[in-house]
């Protein structure tokens, strides 16, 4: 113990000496008279302010001071040190340029600090927050060629709002403003705050935009502040229209004509093909939508604009419908640019025409892609796709996509003989920008609902084992309530799996293993699938999350009609293949915490269960859960983990066959940091496993029980992520920390870690190569 304390003490001394050396090294590069600026401090002298209010004011003022000192880490300034030691480069490239100007950071000197400007900033900000009698001073403290500035603020008492008045006049716009005053942000008794006043003007403007006042602007409002009407540091606010408010801003406008240019281009405008405003006397309206569609080439069916446009003739203008229309036109996916203009057509009746200027994308495209990928089974690999897309297939903005592909999936590291996968296939998808159904579906969302139809075929070859022919088809709907909430309902989803090329070696192994035998049996799965997604990860917030829940119901109605019951020897078949009957639910929850612009924490929890019944004793292999791989528990090969504490090595020593389960639980955590531009690093830990619903005598320990926590696998590692904007290449190196199929009491593997042993590294270090983040 004594030796431990001595070591720790030496370490602290060494760190302190290194800190002092590096710190002094930075100042020795300064010229005569220069001083390194180490930052500023704000002191507030006021004994009457509450502690929290004083702290918030101090923090806000600190953020507004400029410039910021050189970045530091544990009291050191490594970036400044690199700048100082690097030679001045002769060219804007090379190692010296990279070290000095990319890695390094130019010194911030005391001479760069405008102390009078910062003092004025402190006073102005304080007054904007209601401290009308604020005064500030500053002092500079210098030592050993380093200097900091101390600003002292005497804010005085904060002024509170005693009364809020909305001045009346006879104008129509003022009548609308009077109707909005009950929800004002300016509350009696609250502190005076200029930011709240600005928000109140914007609130009124937003509400007026919903009532037809298209040309109104927040600057048309003024909030007068009177501090003489009351004593004890109170102010009275008077909200009124400015005297010089333009007449156009006070008028309430409605829609006259709606004119759509679905094939608009700047080149055509220059050639005089289009003119705005347009004389529509000789044009014919679209009969259902009461709109004009200028489409001489007849590229688009006018009906798509009837569904997308929220403005109709005679409607009062409002901003919500304005934005909804633009968003729906963009979400059609066929237009590259969407522009909207309003032109006054009748100034006496306060009407304007609305023009939609739509520039279409290339309607057809053929693209060859060679990319890395990660499939749903957590295998990583490469894939070549040839895609043909038509974005206006039936002239109604229908998107048709057809593709053929070839791929191989693999994983590097770990035990040998884990099989690679080779795949090839083709698929076709038709996405219709409306709900095709015998009922009427109305959506006020900014996103166009879609009907999706797809068919596909894939040939999968698992080397030295077997091949699978998979046929798929689906029909369903996708719609979004808003940017956060999305629904996907497949009314009918069918999968037919037909095995082929089963090797004698695999047949021999599967003779005494029912789980392996079921893999190469024909599978027929059909039924509805529903998924719901909620996310706010697009928001610039410190804490965001993502949730996706999926419900998969296969063969339920068919099983009920046919009376299927495999337990009573009433197995039903369709075309000689038993259909699957089960219920499956899966939940994927992710939480992200952003520490700053360069570091964050990402976590994920997955929980799922699949229950077979009726015509099925087991969940079909293609619908079971799997664990391990580049998007799962990364310390284990894809599909080799579980079920439960079953040891997959007992099937055949040296071989790792796919292991699946009916229950899945997985937890992941990852700390992410940016090192330099495109280079990111991560430290991660994963835990999880899969289990069976029913007992399997051939796989002892596979059933889910109350002992499930002791059967969780745990792995950890670090990764590099190369973010090239168009793609993110991920390299994750992981090792197991807990192996569930080891004997009880020996499952934690800390005592077995031996980086110096090549055989240990070969069996325990797993390199995952993938595209994109794991979650």
Automatic annotation (TrEMBL):
Q: Please state the protein's primary subcellular location.
A: membrane
> What highest taxon heads this organism's lineage?
Bacteria
Could you tell me which PROSITE patterns the record lists for this protein? PROKAR_LIPOPROTEIN
What the entry lists under InterPro entries is as follows: Bac_surfAg_D15 (IPR000184), D15-like (IPR039910)
Keywords, ordered alphabetically: Cell outer membrane, Membrane, Signal, Transmembrane
Subcellular locations according to the entry? Membrane
Keyword Signal on this protein? yes
Span of domain Bacterial surface antigen (D15): 451-750
Entry-linked Pfam families: Omp85
Q: What PANTHER family does its record include? A: SORTING AND ASSEMBLY MACHINERY SAMM50 PROTEIN FAMILY MEMBER, TRANSLOCATION AND ASSEMBLY MODULE SUBUNIT TAMA
Protein name (record): BamA/TamA family outer membrane protein
